Amino acid sequence: MLQQTDKQEESYSQAHKPASEFETRTEYLDHELQIMKPRRWGLNLPGRDFRFEMEDFVPAIAGTIGISVMYSAVMTAWATGLTAKWPGVNLGAEWIIEVVRVEMLIPALLFCIIGSGFLNPRANLAGNHGPMIPLIGSIALAGAHPLALAALVCVFGLLLSYFKGGSRLVNLTSQGVAGGLLAFLGFMGAKGQITSLFSWAGGLQDKHELTYSLSYVALAIFAVNIVLYAFLAKIGKRWLAIPACSIVAVALALALGAGVDLQFTTAPGLPNMNPWYWWGSTETGWQLGIPNVSHFIASLPWAILAVAMWSPDFLGHRIFQELNYPKNTDKVLMDVDDTMTCCSLRQFTGTFFGGGNITSSWGTYMIPAAIAKRPIPAGAILLGILCIVIATVGYPMDVAVWQPVMSCALLVGVFLPLLEAGLQMVKSSNDTNSAGICIFAALVTNPVLAWAITMFLDNNGLIGDKERAKRLSFTDRIIIPAGAVIVCTLAMAAVGMLPGIPAIL
Known about the structure:
Blueprint (H helix, E strand, L loop, with lengths): L1 H7 L3 H4 L9 H11 L21 H29 L7 H27 L16 H6 L4 H17 L2 H7 L3 H28 L2 H4 L6 H20 L6 H15 L19 H5 L13 H16 L1 H15 L11 H17 L10 H9 L4 H18 L1 H6 L2 H23 L3 H16 L2 H13 L6 H5 L3 H22 L10
Helix pairs in contact: 4-5, 4-17, 4-18, 4-20, 5-16, 5-18, 7-14, 7-16, 8-15, 9-11, 9-20, 9-21, 9-22, 11-12, 12-20, 14-24, 15-17, 17-20, 21-22, 22-24
């Protein structure tokens, strides 16, 4: 007993063993996860508290590719919406690139390298709020202001984090509901990327001035990558899927004549990082000026919606760690409330310096990191460095957002693993019942409202495990789940996200 106690009190550096002492690489990585004791809001140092391993490059590369794609999509949506809303606003391609660079530089340094890397390795990186991207055009047309939206998201997120609301909601979500949510997100995301790549390949015919479509390029890329992904999974190297499949996609696309679509247009440089340039005038930056009261009112329902959608997003990333990490690794699992704190602060900071991203837990980083059996800090530092280098050099951004790279990286690095994890969580008939209702509700409405509704039904024994409901308190059965349903419903009704019901505002 004394020996066991002494072992538990060993620091990471004392408990660390070289990889040569383990029979397999997997055993070494499992041991690393089990002996780590990250300091929460304290200084974590390489060697003393964590180490860099070659596997850390996988989530770093995947996260960099994913965020380059997401940021480009976000800024393009803002430019389109604001130009349509305000005739005097003119936001072109150069503006989009400059804002993307701002978002990649400031948050990478403050929240990837310093925040999740050195100060709190239990806080997942603050990335992009993917489900909000299709709504940005509507947000702009509603008269919202990016800086006002960021301030409100920051305040609501900090409040939810302070009262431990995020972790409470995650703990109240059963395996069946979570499995259904992950399966739905994985399936819909995979379908979207498959459609996007075929659309891209089919649209190349005009640029080539050919009489036939190049859709076979997409078919060839998917066929080869399916075989490669299956092979990597079979030999236990699935963590290599993102770089391997992306390289294969580029090679096939170039070999089959689709390279004319790849253009290097983003030259080296640094963006203007003076907040006054971006927000202080209607002639520079976003050309919107400082937000006023009407901007805050227009931004309010969207801010509530964004924060309400955080919990299921964070839930998926936390569960993915739990499914891939070995036992006795609770100390390295992402802390939902700390992640919300970082996302909230990152939201306002990034926008204050000129960005326009709507942030959430970084899925294109966390999911590959979990597959590679790596904790947060080392990969976070590498990712931050890669983002700074790519944003400064410029040209690699063009490769990262090229459709073959983007679709394959997101498909094998995010959506297929999400689908697999969701199916893995559905282990009993009770779980199947909850998962099925969750998927059905998501198809009818959207995954966030579906999560809230099925959580309420499941916690009251109306679906799923009826015995589980008896173990929950009145607060956990009624008050919190019902509150989640009400908040999500009102926020979505306000902005027109309920099918068949026009927006209230």
